[in-house]
Design goal:
- The protein has helices spanning 2-24, 212-237, and strands spanning 25-39, 55-63, 70-73, 77-83, 89-95, 98-102, 106-113, 127-139, 142-154, 169-170, 175-186, 192-206.
- It is an alpha+beta fold.
- The protein has one domain (25-210).
- Helix 1 (2-24) packs antiparallel against helix 2.
- The protein starts with a helix and ends with a helix.
- Residues 1-23 and 210-238 have low confidence and may be disordered.
């Protein structure tokens, strides 16, 4: 009986963890196309490749309840960010067959709604969301700065409130954008070894989907519960 109770507690704990993760970890997909690009070192294809019009996809994962993240809030804005292990957000982009992940050093999730600003007299209808991730470090004599910025804004009330939930928008009426910067430089010679800047028109932002880790925990929990019930049934029959 005690063994079965322990198994039940373990299963309940795993289900609890799964529920917590799926409630607070969001996976978003931004889809769009390149509007301008300057890729001097061929980061997204051979040097000279015309990237304008190429399909662009960005996958964003963020935890809106990371206890280590920093939180700055006011009447009309809510700023959620973190550095290193406290970073609540990471971004992976795909462009012209190249995949790049950013977010090793910091990430942010910013919500603004100026209609909530008390006594607002100027630009009182603009609301926006913005997500960004960055890698900034020096290693083996090379300074690296990779940056991805994604977001959207509107003045018609389509975006409202400050909740850090996954947005789900399609242009228009929300003005959606994306920007990617890839940069690396030799700290001794100052020679630029990587340099690419890409601007993107985002066409849609997909809403949250269950986190794969959360599904794994739930499946393990259900499997454990089934095994526990089967053992209990065999014991009762014996």
């Amino acid at each position: 009986m005690i063994k079965h109770l322990g198994a039940a507690i373990a299963v309940a704990a795993s289900l609890g963890l799964a529920g917590q993760a799926s409630a607070t970890v969001h996976d978003l997909v931004y889809k769009g196309h390149v509007t301008s690009a300057l890729d001097l070192t061929g980061e997204f294809g051979p040097v000279g490749t015309d990237l304008v019009g190429k399909a662009f996809t960005a996958y964003v994962t963020y935890d809106d309840a990371n206890p280590a993240a920093l939180h700055d809030t006011g009447a009309w804005y809510d700023y959620y960010y973190g550095y290193g292990a406290a970073n609540p957000l990471s971004i992976t982009i795909k462009l012209n067959g190249v995949t790049m992940s950013v977010g090793a050093t910091d990430g942010t999730d910013l919500r603004e709604d100026r209609s909530l600003l008390p006594g607002c007299t100027l630009d009182c209808t603009t609301a926006s969301f913005e997500q960004s991730a960055e890698d900034r470090f020096t290693q083996n004599g090379l300074y690296t700065l990779n940056y991805v910025n994604l977001g959207g804004s509107t003045t018609d009330g389509t975006i409202s409130g400050l909740a850090h939930t996954a947005p789900d928008y399609t242009n228009p009426p929300v003005d959606l954008w994306g920007f990617v910067n890839v940069f690396q430089q030799d700290v001794d010679t100052l020679e630029t070894t990587k340099w690419a800047e890409v601007s993107v028109k985002i066409d849609s932002v997909g809403g949250a989907v269950p986190e794969p880790a959360a599904w794994s925990l739930m499946l393990l929990g259900f499997a454990g519960m089934g095994a526990s019930l089967r053992r209990a049934r065999r014991t009762a029959l014996a």
